[in-house]
């Protein structure tokens, strides 16, 4: 791409903002050097990378961690240099980031294929992380364990220092010598331990003078008896330095062996960080991924990348920018524009008042094209489309040069000549104020000729102008469309709204009239204008007003449609919630039904046993077993989502017909029971030994009481019923209780559950520290009512619940 054009479009400012979202210097350099590509394949791949990175960042925090640009350090190590501890820590943190990123993307290669491809170029650690960790602490200090020799040296150094300090301490504390000291302290000079002797006592202590204070009142001396000890310490310090350097050199050599791979890995890490930066920048701009189309030649359907096409071949393009915003302007105040010319349009001629936004509109289109071909999402509505141009050229701004003796017109023409020599049908050309800076008639003629040439070449062209001749040219030329930026006559301010299909008006007479130019002068000026031009301006004004009215109506309809869609979505959510609650209720009822069936089975088994003892035939109980089998079939039916709302019989009507103590039939179970409690929409029914709640619509009032069972069976069943007690429910909650109180509550519950004939119960004790769970299960072992127990299933509460199977009565 042309560097001058990129500067005119302010593309470097975009790259500067992008670099601000990078995490380390290597990726910042990549961001500042990012250039748009003419390859459709490469541009599409870059856009896909940005989209994947945005998707990842929307779900989790991602980045390159504590990585650094370690290429200078690696180069030094490759040349045999020794890296300092902090440089080694930078290498370590970078390799850890690479390792973590590779592991993370290996698991999600299918979801993020392009980002995963980048991470494949990240380096392996090759044991370098462990090697650095073995010798350095997190603060960059070389560890004693870095080598056995270093450990011995440091141990001997500590012993020698302690011995020296002990001897010097005598001078500091001895009453004979302490009065000779300026201060009772031990300090260092030139790496040797000394004491501060007052100058008047020089020679009183046999010693070597290493330094004196600025006033000369204090001498820093090393007593002769400790000279050898100081020498020993100095020798050990030098040995420590040499061993530390040897250790650092050894690890640095390992890094140097993998220099090529490490530098290549940093480049890939920078590419990955750049993808994250592009994603963050897109979020900042509230941008979207454009649809990037490849230029195709209509005549022979060859790709526009073919080099040997005819110069006048027409390329099929589509620029469709919806609600496009200039990325360098405040998104809260900038007025978005729509650039969506009809298919086949090759040139757009924009007219309108000065400072009306023509130049900004041109820059917006050019900059968004360049951003898209750089892999950046653009600040425009989703669904915007752009062709992938082979080159982008722009002539915007004042090109006059005092040094080169160029006027504004000469500067523009010089730049236009340069551009015309290099463009083809794959180019986007942007000209601001084409033909300006010279005689209007000649300027308009040159502008028309240049625009005709661009149409012959086949370039996509955007032109801003004040010449009415170009408006006429655009109106009468195939493939060229007029566009204008509106101006509010009432406020004398531009609205910055771009309108395609209508040329702009100068509004000079109206503006002059608003500003107070005398009316006779206005009338005289109007008389000088061709009546046809005035009539055309009036028609344009009427068309614009009608368009604005239609646009406002369309906006109202769009708002109404959006409101209806939001209400529809809200209703769908509410219905979904109601349906989920219905399914949960039915699932709970089915669970209660399973419990009831289990209790009935136990009662039947008990009746069978008692009938055998009484020598009664078992055929009498078959009818009960058949009803129980039907109940089991209904209980086992899955809970499915209801597609339509079933309006059953009125609950209030059934409610008015029922009374407490009345016998009813539960239609869903085909079982008979007695009403024990009434609610607004449901009732509690006693069926044998079981109490359950049923909807009023599921209850059928009994007209008469008929019981065809054998008397013996009724008698035996009655004895069973009287032996049962009311059910305490299928679960007990012990959470929040002390162990002793919890066990007392569980004991009472188990006794009541056993007497009511429950086959199993759920004991909720929670997870916590596990003490209550241990106490509960300890009490259940060998319990007189408990046959066995086990941990609750995943849907029952897991280890926070114990399910106990009770013995039969």
Account of the protein in words:
The chain starts with a helix and ends with a strand. Strand 15 and strand 16 (493-500) form a beta hairpin. It contains 24 helices and 25 strands. The model is unreliable at 298-315, 400-406, 643-655 and 704-724 (pLDDT under 50). With 809 residues, it is α/β, with parallel strands linked by helices.
Report the average pLDDT across residues: 82
Low-confidence segments = 298-315, 400-406, 643-655, 704-724
Beta-strand portion reads: 15-25%
Q: CA-to-CA gap between the ends?
A: 91 Å
Largest sheet: 6 strands, mixed
Strand arrangement across the biggest beta sheet: 12-13-14-10-15-16
Which structural class do the helices and strands define?
alpha/beta
The number of E-state strands comes to 25
Overall shape: it is flat
- How many helices does DSSP assign? 24
Helical coverage, percent range: 40-55%
Radius of gyration: 45 Å
């Amino acid at each position: 791409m042309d560097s001058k054009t990129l500067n005119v479009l302010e593309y470097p400012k975009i790259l500067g903002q992008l670099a601000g979202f990078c995490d380390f210097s290597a990726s910042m350099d990549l961001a500042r050097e990012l250039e748009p590509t003419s390859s459709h394949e490469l541009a599409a791949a870059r856009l896909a990378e940005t989209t994947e990175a945005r998707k990842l960042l929307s779900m989790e925090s991602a980045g390159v961690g504590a990585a650094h640009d370690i290429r200078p350090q690696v180069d030094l190590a490759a040349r045999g240099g020794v890296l300092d501890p902090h440089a080694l820590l930078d290498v370590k943190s970078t390799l850890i980031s690479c390792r973590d990123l590779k592991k993370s993307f290996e698991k999600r290669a299918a979801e993020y294929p392009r980002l995963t491809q980048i991470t494949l170029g990240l380096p392996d650690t090759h044991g370098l992380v462990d090697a650095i960790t073995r010798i350095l602490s997190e603060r960059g200090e070389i560890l004693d364990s870095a080598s056995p020799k270093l450990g011995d040296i440091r141990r001997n150094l500590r012993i020698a220092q302690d011995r020296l300090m002990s001897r010097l301490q005598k001078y500091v504390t001895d009453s004979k010598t302490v009065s000779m000291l300026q201060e009772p302290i031990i300090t260092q000079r030139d790496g040797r331990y000394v004491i501060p002797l007052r100058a008047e006592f020089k020679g009183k202590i046999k010693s070597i003078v290493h330094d004196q204070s600025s006033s000369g009142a204090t001498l820093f001396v090393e007593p002769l008896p400790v000279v050898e000890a100081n020498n020993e310490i100095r020798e050990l310090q030098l040995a420590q330095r040499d061993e530390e350097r040897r250790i650092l050199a050894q690890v640095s050599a390992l890094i140097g062996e993998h220099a090529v791979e490490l530098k290549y890995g940093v480049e890939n890490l920078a590419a990955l960080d750049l993808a994250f930066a592009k994603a963050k920048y897109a979020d900042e701009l509230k941008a979207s991924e454009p649809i990037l189309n490849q230029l195709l030649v209509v005549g022979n359907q060859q790709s526009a990348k073919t080099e040997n096409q005819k110069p006048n071949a027409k390329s099929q393009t589509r620029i469709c920018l919806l609600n496009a915003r200039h990325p360098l302007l405040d998104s809260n105040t900038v007025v978005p524009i729509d650039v969506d010319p009809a298919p086949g349009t090759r040139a757009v001629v924009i007219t309108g008042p000065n400072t009306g936004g023509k130049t900004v509109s041109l820059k917006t289109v050019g900059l968004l094209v360049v951003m898209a071909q750089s892999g950046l999402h653009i600040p425009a509505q989703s669904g915007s489309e752009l062709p992938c141009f082979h080159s982008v050229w722009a002539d915007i701004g004042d090109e006059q040069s005092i040094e080169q003796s160029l006027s504004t017109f000469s500067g523009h023409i010089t730049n236009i000549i340069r551009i015309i020599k290099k463009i083809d049908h794959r180019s986007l050309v942007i000209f601001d104020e084409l033909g300006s800076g010279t005689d209007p008639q000649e300027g308009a003629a040159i502008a028309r000729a240049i625009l005709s040439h661009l149409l012959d070449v086949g370039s996509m062209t955007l032109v801003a102008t004040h010449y009415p001749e170009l408006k006429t040219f655009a109106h009468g030329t195939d493939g060229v469309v007029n566009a204008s930026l509106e101006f509010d006559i009432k406020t004398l301010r531009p609205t910055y709204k771009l309108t395609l299909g209508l040329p702009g008006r100068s509004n000079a007479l109206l503006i002059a009239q608003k500003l107070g130019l005398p009316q006779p002068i206005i009338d005289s000026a109007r008389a000088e204008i061709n009546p046809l031009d005035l009539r055309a301006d009036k028609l344009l004004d009427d068309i614009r007003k009608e368009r604005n009215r239609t646009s406002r109506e369309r906006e109202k309809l769009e708002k109404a449609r959006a409101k209806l869609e939001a209400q529809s979505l809200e209703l769908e959510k509410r219905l979904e919630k109601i349906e989920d609650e219905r399914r949960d209720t039915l699932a709970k009822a089915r669970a209660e039904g399973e419990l009831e069936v289990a209790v009935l089975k136990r009662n039947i088994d008990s009746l069978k046993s008692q009938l055998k003892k009484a020598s009664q035939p078992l055929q009498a109980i078959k009818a009960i077993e058949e009803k129980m089998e039907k109940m089991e079939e209904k209980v086992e039916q899955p809970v499915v989502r209801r597609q339509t709302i079933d309006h059953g019989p009125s609950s209030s009507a059934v409610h008015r017909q029922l009374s407490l103590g009345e016998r009813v039939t539960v239609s869903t179970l085909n079982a008979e029971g007695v009403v024990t409690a009434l609610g607004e929409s449901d009732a509690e029914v006693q069926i044998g030994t079981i109490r359950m709640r049923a909807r009023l619509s599921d209850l059928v009032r009994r007209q008469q009481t008929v019981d065809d069972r054998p008397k013996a069976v009724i008698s035996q069943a009655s004895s069973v019923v009287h032996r049962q007690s009311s059910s305490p429910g299928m679960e007990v909650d012990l959470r929040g209780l002390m162990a002793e109180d919890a066990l007392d509550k569980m004991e009472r519950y188990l006794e009541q559950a056993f007497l009511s004939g429950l086959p199993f119960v759920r004991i909720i004790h929670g997870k916590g520290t596990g003490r209550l769970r241990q106490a509960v299960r300890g009490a259940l072992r060998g319990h007189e009512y408990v046959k066995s127990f086990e941990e609750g299933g995943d849907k029952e509460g897991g280890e926070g619940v114990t399910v106990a199977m009770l013995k039969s009565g």
